[in-house]
Amino acid sequence: MSAAFFQTAFDPLQRLFWKTQINILRACPPLSGLVFRYGFGSSNSRRVWIKTFLQVTIHVPGAVLSHWRNKRKSRTVLSYVTMFITTRCTLRCDKCAAHIADLPRHEDTPLQDLVHDMQSLLAGVNYIYEFMLCGGEPFLHADLDKILLACAGSDQIGSISVVTNGTAMPGEMLLGALKKASATVRISKYNRALQPQVEHLKRLFKENGIRFTHNVTSWSDMGGFGQRQTGCEKRRFRVCTQQLNWSIYKGTFHLCGKSAFLTGGGVLTDNAQDYIDLRTMDPAQFGKGVDALLKRPVLSACSHCLGNTYQTQKILSAVQRES
Predict the structure, then answer these.
(1) Which residues pair with residue 278 across a beta bridge?
(2) Range(s) of the domain holding residue 293
């Protein structure tokens, strides 16, 4: 029997497995935050994978208990939130999930806007397990140190992380802010030719007592910028891991990072049902807004995205465009 036959035969089981795990992680933010914090599935090493699996398993009872307490007290808790602070980048990656190379212009979001959006979010939630700062390349943002210190000043945030491609070097003020905020720097592991300074960067973090990870990141082909992918949107959305990526971009709060960038990039017709406007919302209604997003059967962005599912093609990470 051919491989195609077995793939077709086992597709319903794969789909059920993916749909079940996504529903569990959506329903239980503490468990989702736990999985993300330990970097579940981020390494190809069997030893690291087993160690990570055991770490997560040990903490599962506590995560479930925490979720039960949150539900009893009607607390709004999020597993992790990504705030995109800049579209400037040192690389021009093809198939970038944030479509940085496709955007007509690249700019930093002003500090005052970022702080306002963060404060609006915190006014509506009780706790966020992980708050992540992304780009583009966040180390290019001139006020990253101030953003970090603003995040560190809230007891509603469990941990802070910054995602970098390992090509930009931080200055003394940024190093101090990273340490003071107890932030974890997540260095994406790409082709060595793209990261000539990465070992120096890692030594710099070690010398300054800053936590960091340097793991291989798996990329998926989710389609081009604005590329129409009509048909089976609802079916694809149900098994897409992108719906676990709460994201902030240009003052709007999205269930999916792809939705955030396609809306902010002007590809999508503005649909207020796809996001929460952090600049006009009533904090008392934020929890209801989150529940409404979680009940969405599909997002407008799904018509422009292949999704990140068990069927999505894996591709080489950080392949550079020539022009």
Answers:
(1) none
(2) 77-315
- Is pLDDT at 119 greater than 50 in this prediction? yes
The one-letter amino acid code at 245 reads N
Rounded-to-integer distance, Cα 265 and Cα 261, Å: 6
The yes-or-no verdict on residue 50 having pLDDT over 80 is no
Q: How far apart are CA 286 and CA 288, in angstroms?
A: 5
Q: What whole-number distance in Å separates Cα of residue 100 and Cα of residue 90?
A: 10
CATH code for position 260: 3.20.20.70
Residues 6+ apart with CB under 8 A from 27: none
pLDDT at 148: 96
In contact, 137 and 163? CB cutoff 8 Å? no
User: Which runs of E-coded beta strand occur in the chain?
Assistant: 77-84, 127-134, 157-164, 184-189, 211-216, 219-220, 246-249, 252-254, 275-277, 314-315
pLDDT at 323 (0 to 100): 67
Is residue 2, in this structure, part of any structural domain at all?
Answer: no
Residue 43 confidence (pLDDT) above 70: no
87: in domain: yes
Could you tell me whether strands 275-277 and 184-189 are parallel, antiparallel, or unpaired per DSSP bridges? unpaired
Q: Give the model confidence (pLDDT) of 236-291 as tens digits.
A: 999 998 888 899 999 999 999 999 988 888 888 888 999 999 999 999 999 999 99
In this structure, the chain runs to a length of: 323
Domains in the chain, number: 1
Query: Cα(65)–Cα(73) distance, rounded to whole angstroms?
Result: 13
Q: Give me the mean pLDDT over the 229-233 stretch.
A: 78
Higher pLDDT, 99 or 53: 99
Distance CA(2)–CA(8), nearest Å, equals 10
Retrieve residue 177's tokens. 């802010």
Name residue, tokens 């959006």: 117
